[in-house]
Structures are given as C-alpha cells and as structure tokens.
Amino acid sequence: MLSEAQIESLAAYLVEGLLREGSMRSKAESGELVACVIELLSANFEEERRIEDEAEKIAEEQARLHPGVNPAEFRLLVKKRLAAQRGFVL
C-alpha cells in the first residue's frame, strides 16, 4: 500500500498532467481536484486492503482444514473472487 504522501503525490501528478495536456478542463481549482483524487485513491486502496485481509483469513482457515492446499495460491484465488463479487478491479 502507498503512504499518504505517495498518494498525494500521485494525485497531484495525475491532475496536473491531465490539465496540462488538455485532457481535462475544470471550473474547480486544481487543489480541489487533487483532494478528490486523493479521496478516491485512498478509498480504493482501503477496499483492496479489506479484500486482502478477508482473503488471508479465509486462506488460513482453509489451510488448517486442508493441509494439501497451497495457501499463497488459494489466497490469490480468494482475493480475485472477493474482488469480482464486490465489483472491484484489482
């Protein structure tokens, strides 16, 4: 996961690049746009963390029940399925 400073930097880079290239025009100040992008990115990373935590929990439970299961592969499979069920793109 990215740090708060990294998220802020990424958001500023995205907004400034889109405005500079003319790919986006806005009546709002760039600082307001950056704040919105920060909020969106932060929410996205938080949801991914929740999915990863849940996948880890399920994989651990299944590894105890089925010792032959590869926990890393199973965790990835569970993570993909949880994301798909929630309409979240990994």
Describe the structure.
- The structure is a single chain.
- The protein is built from 3 helices and no strands.
- With 90 residues, the protein is mainly alpha-helical.
- The chain has one domain.
- It is elongated and about 55 Å long.
- It starts with a helix and ends in a 5-residue tail after the last helix.
Summarize the structure.
This protein has 90 residues and is mostly helical. It is 77% helix and 0% strand.
Summarize this structure as a short list of keywords or feature phrases.
90 residues; mainly alpha
Q: Report mean pLDDT, rounded to a whole number.
A: 94
**Ends distance:** 13 Å
Low-confidence stretches: none
Number of helices: 3
C-alpha Rg (nearest Å): 18 Å
Tell me the β content.
Answer: under 5%
Counting DSSP E segments of at least 2 residues, the number of strands comes to 0
Biggest beta sheet summary? none
How many structural domains in the coordinates? 1
Structural class assignment: mainly alpha
Order of helices and strands: HHH
Shape: elongated
The percent of residues in helical segments reads: over 70%
